[in-house]
Each structure stands twice: as C-alpha cells, then as structure tokens.
Write a structure and sequence with these properties.
Layout: E1 6-9, E2 32-38, E3 47-54, E4 57-65, E5 78-84, E6 93-100, E7 106-114, E8 123-128, E9 212-213, E10 216-217, E11 227-228, E12 239-240, E13 289-291, E14 294-296, E15 305-306, E16 313-314, E17 328-330, E18 336-338
C-alpha cells in the first residue's frame, strides 16, 4: 500500500479564483484534484477517509483528512479539495471518500471511477451524500468501484488473481468471472475482459459486473426513465437525474419531470418510494424491498430473478449477476445451471 504523495487542501492549496469563485488550478500531469462538495441536506462530517485503487490493488486505504483534529469545511456546501498524486498506475483510478462524525460513524460518502483516458482532465467533482452504496459481495469495496463485484476480493486485483485466495470463491472454488474468454475471464467482441465499472464497453460480456449501460460498465441494469450510468463524475454508477429535470425527455405526461430518485413524478416521501425508484436500503421503499438498487415488489433473492424494472421477473439464457455467474448460467426456464 502506498504512502505519501497525497494531501488534503482546504483553503491552503495555491488556487486562482475567478470572479465567480471557481477554482482554475490544474494539477500536474497524472495527478487528480478532487473537489468535494456536500449534496443538499447531507450532514457535515468531522473527518474524511480516502480509499484509492487501480488495477494493481489498493493505492491508499483509510487515509485520514485532516491528519489530526476536526475538518474545517470551506463553506456550508464545499468541503475543499484533495490532491492525489499516484505516480505510475495501471487502469482506472477508483476512489471512495467517506465522511465520519465525531464518533467515527459514516455520515456521508461518495465513489468515483476515473478511466485512464479521462485522467488528462485533472480536476473532478464529487458530491458526498448520506446514501450507503451497495456492496453485494461484502468485501468493503462498493459495487460501483469494485473490480469484481460478484466475488469477495479485498485485494482488488480482478476476478482472476493468479490463484491467490483473494481471487477464489467460497471454499476455494473458482471465482465467478462470467463466460470464459480463453483465460476464464469474461470477454466481449471488442477483446475486453473483466472491464471495471466506468470503463467504456461495447457489450455486457466484457464487464466484470455483467452490465454495459450508456456505453460504460455499470453496477446494475439501470433500467427505467430519469437515470443513467454515465453522468459526469459518476461513470459506472446508476444515478437519477436531478429533480425537476428531464434531459432525455422520458416523462411524457404533461407537467411531469424527474423526481431525483430515478423516476418521473413528484419526489416520494422518505420510506415510501415506489417500485422502480432508486434506493440503497429497503427502509426507503414502501414495499420494504430494495433489490439491485431499486425498490422491488418482493425480496427477489432467488438465482435467475431480477428486479431491474421494479418488478421481480425471471432471467433467461444469460447470467444473473451476482447470484448465477460462470460456470453457471440461467437457462430458458430461468434456472441456474452449469454451462
């Protein structure tokens, strides 16, 4: 794990401000300047913890900012900036920022995947909110930035890792990597295998998650109106468009717009989200069931079932990530069988 070459700057980093107050600083080549803000209504944390991964594994884990004492935000909505200087790195940079309260409990957070081609941009914005991101395999890395979200692999070296224990499935079984592509990895017609979340993709077969949405590998199917998987600074994460917008003109009823939770219509009251609206926990849903990031009509936990649309339905003739993956697949009768 790396140390050094990373620092938090809050009104300390030399910055040129424009008339409207926006930073115009450009970090040196290869570095990333992460501008942190708070989503509306999100609580202010007392400290930040940073996790950074590339294809070789963790670069930094649980780095604290500030080093000591309590975080002093730049303003009510702007926390400040983190300058990350990873040096030589491989693949996408995958970042998680957690904001903790005085008792060390997570109160806000956010994730971001930066593809190699996007690194030249240099400066990236990340809004922290109170939503706890899904972690389907329980390895501590949110699905949105997990390089293999169907397999517990805290070392983050992909779904196939030279036979190390981190790469294996339960009881030492082969890792769930999707359809074989010569080396046991999932590959698409473009030659991509086990592409990470946020990576450009021509087909779902090449994504470690099993989903290619809006041209990038996505954490889930991201079906429905008012949502996408390639919003600025959030490639690979299914997010709802901002409330009262409708950039894709999907809300056809007169006077209707997106509600901010991945659906058309007025915003739902907390704990009363309708089926198909984006969620992070069952407590947000009227049905009490949150499956694959959306409110579902049932628990929908059986292999070869999906709730991508808000209604539990069968999966046929393909994998069902993460419940039914290689060497298994769903057959025409929606049963998980060996391929």
């Amino acid at each position: 794990m790396r140390v050094g070459h990373i620092r938090l700057s809050i009104l300390v980093l030399a910055t040129t401000l424009s008339a409207c107050g926006a930073s115009t600083q450009v970090p040196e080549p290869g570095a990333v300047l992460l501008r942190l803000t708070l989503a509306p209504g999100a609580p202010t944390p007392e400290e930040l913890r940073l996790f950074v991964y590339d294809d070789s594994g963790p670069l930094w884990s649980d780095a604290r900012f500030p080093d000591q004492g309590k975080l002093v935000p730049e303003s009510a909505s702007r926390l400040g900036t983190i300058l990350i200087q990873p040096g030589a790195s491989t693949g996408a940079l995958r970042l998680e920022v957690r904001g903790l309260d005085g008792g060390g409990q997570r109160v806000v957070g956010g994730v971001l995947a930066i593809a190699p081609a996007a690194r030249a941009k240099g400066t990236f914005d990340l809004a922290l909110d109170a939503t706890v991101p899904p972690d389907g395999d329980g390895d501590g890395i949110p699905d949105a930035i997990d390089d293999c979200p169907a397999v517990t692999n805290p070392a983050q070296r992909g779904c196939t890792d030279g036979g190390s224990p981190d790469a294996g499935g339960p009881d030492g079984a082969a890792p769930d990597t999707g359809p074989p592509g010569g080396d046991g990895s999932a590959c698409d017609v473009g030659g991509g295998c086990n592409r990470p979340l946020g990576a450009a993709c021509p087909a779902p077969e090449g994504c470690a998650s099993g989903f290619c949405v809006d041209g990038v590998c996505c954490a889930n199917a991201c079906l429905g109106p008012c949502r996408s998987c390639n919003q600025p600074g959030a490639d690979g994460v299914c997010k709802g468009y901002a409330a009262m917008t409708d950039p894709d003109f999907e809300c056809t009823t007169a006077g209707m717009a997106c509600n901010g939770a991945g659906a058309c219509g007025p915003a739902s009251a907390p704990g009363n989200k309708a089926r198909g609206e984006l969620c992070a926990a069952g407590s947000e849903c009227a049905s009490t069931f949150c499956k694959e990031g959306v409110c579902c009509n049932t628990a929908c936990t059986n292999p070869c079932e999906t709730c991508a649309s808000g209604t539990c339905s069968p999966v046929r003739r393909t994998m069902d990530v993460p419940e039914c993956v290689a060497p298994m697949t769903c057959n025409a009768q929606a049963r998980c069988i060996v391929m």
